[in-house]
Amino acid sequence: MSTLSLAASDQAHKNEHVQLLFDDPSHCGMTIKDLKIVAKNKTILTVDELRLPKTGVVAIMGPSGSGKSTLLKAMSELMDENLNHEGHIEITCVGDTDAPDSVCSHFAMVWQKPTVFPCSIWDNLKIPLRKRKVERKQWRGLMEHALEQVGLLDELDAQWWKQRAQRLSGGQQQRLSIAMGLLKDSNIFLFDEPTSALDPIATEKIEQIIRDLGRTKLVLLVTHSLGQAHRVSDYSAMIHNDKEFGILGEFSRTEDFFKSPSSAKSREFIMRETGLTQGMGGPRNTQEVAVN
Q1: What is the CB neighbour count within 10 angstroms for residue 120?
Q2: Residue 131, by phi and psi: left (phi above 0), alpha (psi -120 to 50) or beta?
Q3: How far apart are alpha carbons 98 and 79 in whole angstroms?
């Protein structure tokens, strides 16, 4: 066998657990193909092919440093000066409005640390509306609707528009960040460990919002919590460390993934994270993984 065919065989083996769902263009919201992310001439992550739905929640899991957050940055073109990427990312789950100023205009980003500005709630919420050139007379109604969607309106002062955003709790600030994303009118939400610093009650509120968003939008959720991925996602992607960089090692419906992950590395990861030492056999066995 030639060197080329050996390489092709090895690549096919790596990708055998990545299900190519959404082959119907009417159901496909984003296609990633031949993606390679590089930092200072060192490969960080490769994704050979991944198709994402137009709506639904996709959990992205994997070991620390495997490239999960970097994948979100590549999708939204929020790469810093030390990172660059090559490959094909096609976004199809966008509206029919005029083309945005940049690719990142399609996305609403919610990071681990809430991204609110040191000013009033009103001044935070007006930023996406002003960028969209929404008439000022519509602002208050749209703002209150967004605050209501994230469960904040009833928790704020009567004159909420004067309230300082940074005086909100961490969970409230995170929900204000989501409200800003709603006012941005994006079709894709990117969440990068949005509940890692929150208490269980605040986490539950964020998870409910994520589930609700997934009914009408594409939501990508990077999480270290297998329980969270199991609770909120419709599809699961697992990134593995392969030698010195990350690769997309598995993608499937969440129900299938947690019932019986098909990749050996996925099974090992779940066993390590859950403390399981037995009960997980080969690919697509009939024993369900216990995840809280």
Answers
A1: 16
A2: alpha
A3: 24
Say what angle helices 200-213 and 170-184 make with each other, to 10 degrees: 10
Determine the pLDDT at residue 291: 61
Kindly state the DSSP code that residue 63 receives in the 8-state scheme.
Answer: S
Domain boundaries, the chain: 117-186
Q: Tell me which residue of 247, 221, 224 sits closest to 52, measured CA to CA.
A: 221
- 92's enclosing H/E stretch is none
> What whole-number distance in Å separates Cα of residue 218 and Cα of residue 164?
31
d(C-alpha 262, C-alpha 251), whole Å: 9
| Token pair belonging to 77 | 């073109």
Q: Residue 39: helix, strand or coil by DSSP?
A: strand
What pLDDT score does 283 carry? 45
Cα 280 to Cα 273: distance, rounded to the nearest angstrom:
13
Q: Are 51 and 22 in contact (CB under 8 A)?
A: yes
Do the beta carbons of residue 68 and residue 60 sit within 8 Å?
Answer: yes
In this prediction the pTM is 0.87
pLDDT at 221: 98
* Close Cβ partners of 70 (under 8 Å, ≥ 6 residues apart): 37, 44, 45, 83
